[in-house]
Amino acid sequence: MKKELSPSFLHLTAAQARTLAKNMPPEEVLYELADLYKMFADSTRVRILSALQAQELCVLDLAALLGVSQSALSHQLRILKQAKLVKSQREGKIIFYSLADSHVESIFKQGLDHVRE
Amino acid sequence: MKKELSPSFLHLTAAQARTLAKNMPPEEVLYELADLYKMFADSTRVRILSALQAQELCVLDLAALLGVSQSALSHQLRILKQAKLVKSQREGKIIFYSLADSHVESIFKQGLDHVRE
DNA sequence: AATATATATGAACACTTGTTCATATATTAA
DNA sequence: TTAATATATGAACAAGTGTTCATATATATT
Question: Do B65 and A21 touch (CB under 8 A)?
Answer without folding.
Answer: yes
